[in-house]
Amino acid sequence: SAELCLLPALAVLLPPLPGPGGPGPAEVGLGALPAELRAAMRALVGDLDALFAALGLREESFAVGPLSRVIAAELAGYAPARNRRRTATNKASVVFVDRALDLAGAIGHHGDNLAEKILSVLPKLPGHKTDVMVNMVELTALQTTDEACSIIAPGCLSQPNDPAAKALWESFMNLKQKEAVMEARRHLVEAVSRENLPIKMSMGEVTPEQLSSYIQLFRNNLKALENHCGLLQLVLATVQTLKHSQTSKWDNFLAFERLLLQTIGDSEMPSVLNQLLPVIKPYNERTKDDYTCEDFLVLLVYMYSVVGEIKSGKELDAAEEEVKKTLVKAICDELEPSPLLQKIT
C-alpha cells in the first residue's frame, strides 16, 4: 500500500536470548554469534543493500537492541553499500528493532484489523511468503466439498490493476475490522449495480453469508466477472477469513490474553500456571475450539513476556514442572505432529 510494504519474514533471524552464563546482550558482536545466525545476517545485509540500490537510497541507520546494532554496523561497513551511498540521490532513515524486545506484540492477538487476520488465516500462495490463496470455487458452477480444490486457480490479495480492489485493500489495512467489512459490502454493491445484476438489498450488520449471496450474482456472467475480478478476490478472502475456524480461535486468544493480564496483576506466577493446566488437553480430548500444543506454547511465550521479573522459588519450580509434564505428554500424544512440533522434539 502507499504507506506499507510487506517483505518476506526472516524466520531464522531471532536475537539469541541471554542464557545463564552466556554472553550478555551488550557484548555481542558478529564474531560471538553462531555461524548460522552470522550467515543469515550477512544475507540480510546483502538483501537490504540490493533493495536500497533499487530505490536509489542513501540511508542513515538507527538501531534498538543488541542484534540490531550488529546488523546496522555490518550495513554501514559493507563495501557495496559504501559505494552506493556515495552516488544515491534519495535519503532515508532506517530503524532496526530487535524482535525479542517485544515478543508479546508479535504473538498477541490485539489487532482489530482485517488485513492482519486474512494474512494469518488463509494458506500462503505457492512460491510466495506474503500473499495468500483465495479459493475461487464459489464463482464457478462447480459443486465440490474439497476445500483445497486444485482445479480452479486460486485468487490472491495483490490486485495492482483494479482500482476498486486497491482502495478496498487500503481500508482492510487502515480501518477497524467492522468498518472494513462494511467497505467490502459497499464496493460489492456498487459493482453489482454497475452491472445491473438483480440484487436484494439488506441492511444491518454485514455477515459472510450476505457477502456470499452478492458474490453469487456474478457467477454465470463472464463479462461482470472479468470487470470486477480483483474486487471479488478480496471480498472472497474476507468471507473465507470470517468463516475460518482460526478466526473464532483468535477471539478466544484475545479473551485469554486479557484474562492473563488481569490475573498476573493480581496473583503470583505459580497460581497463574496452575490455572492454565486444565487448558492443556491431549489430542483425543480436544475439540476444534481447544488450544493445540502450538497454541499453548504461544500463550506461554505471551505470558512470560508480559510478566516481567519473576520471583523464583519452590512453588514456581513445582508449578512449572507440572506444566512441562502435561505439555510433554500432550506433544507425545499428537497423532500427526506439525512441522514445528517435530522441530521442537
From TrEMBL:
Keyword Signal among record annotations: yes
GO BP term (any one): vesicle-mediated transport
Keyword Signal attached: yes
InterPro entries xref list: Sec1-like
Source organism, top-level taxon: Eukaryota
Signal peptide start and end residues: 1-21
Keywords: Signal
PANTHER family according to UniProt: VESICLE PROTEIN SORTING-ASSOCIATED
Protein name per Swiss-Prot or TrEMBL: SCFD2 protein
